[in-house]
């Protein structure tokens, strides 16, 4: 077990991640046409997808989830779909032993996407068959399926509520035409990990969507898809969002390694910062446990056991935007400073 000194400085503009429950997920199943064993394997694949950031189709094509995963199931249950959506399927949920599943994933070299994740800001509009362009109601099929797929794929999201919020002069047409000014406004004022504008078109020939996805400063990605079933269409869209949000955030098998690090956090100006830092370390997915050693003159000393290589830990601390690594050669210390 390695011991390493990390010197950290507080980033005053803190961004806290959302904690995702990665020990439960569901598959969409037809109860009459599937066996219990088939349902279990489908739901286990959904859980592994949620925990890894790999899409279900990736896991299935590479046959990464097999019978070895079945003993990780603690319990299962069905969940109804709203009747007005006229669906024949049910959600089949499984709750798993998370530690056991983690070990299986590492053994099979499946990456782990830590449960602390950035969120997406999502605005959905629909063009009805009569040409009317509207904000998608919360109970519409498009809203329901996209929300559910985001939940089961482990994607935290804020869906724009046009009845409770007002994005100034922006209208559904700005979503339809992927107005860059709207994207900039959302990025600057809501600071999501991913901005997702969704235009769903209903026609006599079926359904289609045109979407714009932007993550941070990366160029916007524009995708179009025609589909017949709203559930499958929104699942494909959620897969796109999952792949983008998980990119660069996964921990691979070779990066897992128990290490002990000494953390020094400088420039604590007030009690609120101390409380926020404690919450940060309490919830950090890569910290197994930690103990506060001392606190004086704005400096906090912590001894922490981390689950990964120090280099991986530094990468995730940087990504959290609370602390920033300064790559200076100072012997056994790794320096962090205030992010600008």
Automatic annotation (TrEMBL):
Q: Which InterPro entries does the UniProt record give?
A: DUF2066
What protein name does the entry list? DUF2066 domain-containing protein
Report if keyword Signal is assigned: yes
Q: Name one Pfam family in it.
A: DUF2066
- Leader sequence segment: 1-17
Q: Which UniProt keywords apply?
A: Signal
